[in-house]
Amino acid sequence: MVRGQGHEKTDFEIELLRLDMDISELEDGVLTIPIDAGKATKFVYRLFHRASLTGNFAEFEAVESVIDDAIRQIGPWADLCLLKANLDFKLHRLVDARHDLEMVPKLAYSPHGRALSADLDLQEGRYEDARKGYEAVIKANRTWDYLVRLAYLRARMGDVEGAEQLYIEAEDEITAKEMRSYAWVELQRGLLELAHGRYESAGAYYERANEAYSGYWLVDQHIAGLLGAQGKYDEAVVLYKRLIVRAPRPEFQQALGDLYVSMGEPDRARQWHEKALAAYLQSVQRGDVHYLHHLTDFYADVREDGAEAVRWARKDLKLRQNFSTQAALAWALYRDGRFADALDAMHKALSSGVRDAKLFFQAAEIHLAAGRTDEGKLLLRAAAEINPRYQDLHLHR
To answer: Residue 271: which residues within 8 A CB-CB, separation 6 or more?
Structure first.
C-alpha cells in the first residue's frame, strides 16, 4: 500500500491518483487541431473511467461535452461512438444510446456493441432478445463482463443456480490486476444472497469485495444497506454519513432518511429526505432522466403522494418499458387509490417472468386492495418463498 498524509491509501485512492496522472499527461493540447484520434480517444476513456469510478454525475456531463467535441472534430470514430453510447446508457438515455451505435454501422456487430444492444433490449423489456444477445456474444467472447450480464438476467428470472455458476465463471476470467472488477462481481453475488434473505452470506461476499478492493464507496453502500436490513441502524447511519461525505448522491441521502424513519426519528429523516428530493428535482430541471425512478419511489413511499408518483412513473415508462418501470407505475397507482389501473400495470410487470420478492409483495398488496384476495395470498406466499424477510425490502439499497 502507498502511504500518504498519515494513512495508507486505499485501492480506490491509488487508482484515482493514477487516473489523475494519466489525465494530466494527456490533456495538454489533446483536442487541438489537427487532432490525434488515438490520443483523444485515450484521454476521453480516462475521463469516463474516472467518472465511473467516482460515480459523480457532474463528471459524466463533463465527459459528454469532451466526447461531443472530439466527434465534431474527428468524425464518427468507432471507439468514441461506443463510449458515447455507454455514457447515454448509464444515464438512461436509451434512444440516444441506440443512435450512437448506429453512427458507425459496424459498431453494433462488435462484441461491445452487441453486448450493449442486449443491455438495451433488457432495459426496454425484450427479455428473450436480451438473453439471445448475451449468449451470442459470450459464445464468441467468453469474458467476465459478458458473463455477469447474463448472470443478472438469469437471477431476475429465478435461475439462481445458473446465475451463481456464471458469476463463478466470471471471477475465474478476472486477472490479478482487475481486483475492482472482482470486487464488483462479489457485490453481485452478495446481492443475490440478499434478495433471498441470506444476510450472513451476503455480508461475507461484501467483506470479500472490501478486502479485494479497499476504500470503494460502492462497497460501503452495499454494506450500509445490509446493516439497515438487519436492523443495525446505528452502524448503518454512521456508514451512510461517511458515504455521503465521499459521494454526496441523493439516493444515499434518501436511504439515510429512510433509516431514521425506521428508527422512529421523523425530524432527522425529514432533513435528509428534503435534501434528496431537492437534488432529484434539480437533476430533472437540468434535463436529466436518471433519477425519474427515484422520484417515483420517493413520492410513492416517502411522501405517499400517489398522484405525484404516477406523474414521474409515466415519464420513466416512456423511456423504458420493463418490469421495473411497470411495477413502479403500478405501485404509484396503488398509492393513488386507483386499484384497477394498478392491477393492470402490475399484470404487465408480472408477465415479464421476473421472480422477485419485492415485485411479488407489491403485487400482493395491489391484488388484496383490488379485492383479489386469493391471488394476493398466493403472491405473498411466493414472495416469502423467495425471501422470508421480504418485509425488510422497504429500505432503499
So the answer is: 257
What amino acid occupies position 289?
V
Select from 317, 321, 288 the least CA-distant residue to 123: 321
Cell numbers at residue 373, please? 384476495
- The DSSP letter of residue 304 is -
Flag whether the pTM goes above 0.85.
Answer: yes
DSSP code of residue 110: S
Q: Burial of 281 by CB count in 10 Å (0-12 exposed, 13-18 middle, 19+ buried)? A: middle
111-154 tens-digit pLDDT: 999 999 999 999 999 999 999 999 999 999 999 999 999 999 99
In whole angstroms, give the CA distance from residue 181 to residue 146.
12
31-58 pLDDT tens trace: 777 888 889 999 999 999 999 999 999 9
- Phi/psi for 179 (5° steps) reads -70, -30
Identify which of 230, 258, 255 has the alpha carbon closest to the alpha carbon of residue 240: 255
Q: Output the CA–CA distances (angstroms, integers) from residue 91 to 44, 55, 192, 261, in the order listed.
A: 17, 11, 24, 29
Alpha helices in 75-198 (DSSP H): 78-90, 94-102, 111-123, 127-140, 144-156, 160-173, 179-194
